[in-house]
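#onboarding

Welcome to the new folks! Below is a worked example of what a typical request in this channel looks like: someone posts a single protein sequence, and someone else replies with the predicted structure as tokens. Don't worry about understanding the tokens yet, we'll cover that in week two.

Example request:
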Amino acid sequence: MDARTKDIFRAADSGNAMRPGLERITFAPFKDLIKKTWNDDPRARGTADDIVAALRSMRLPRDVTATAARPPDDYSAVAVAEECSSSQ
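Example response:
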């Protein structure tokens, strides 16, 4: 067993949570959902149905670097695809 694997097992045995950083995730609603699913209290994490519903309710912003919870109401995946194809 390599040193990293041993570190993971030691952390799990000690109760320390090992989570990757979320710095690169800019879409705030998704980042918040990830944090919620990592809650130490399983009851606070939500059910799988809750998580699926939260994911389905999210609409990604047109600008992938944006952190707004919702894009403009005229957003549609088709419009974004059309914009991308017409700019090429």
